[in-house]
Write a structure and sequence with these properties.
1 helix; single chain; 83 residues
Length: 83
Amino acid sequence: MRIYMQTIADENQAPKFYHIHVEQDLFQGWIVTKEWGAQGSSGRIQKKQFANAEDANAEAIESRDKQIKKGYRVVFVEGNVNQ
């Protein structure tokens, strides 16, 4: 699953981005990678490991919902995001 979000730009600052990516690792676990920052910057990255896909997807959906409450809008979705 991949979710890419942005804030709306205003005249004083560039839009911010928030990217969430869920993928299986080589050891049958799951990793949720979150990257965020100002558009055009390298941003910050955080990774969390999970034992199963359900927990990893729940973390991604929870992160998405928190960012939407902060004013981010979903721009791109890839994969199953039915929650």
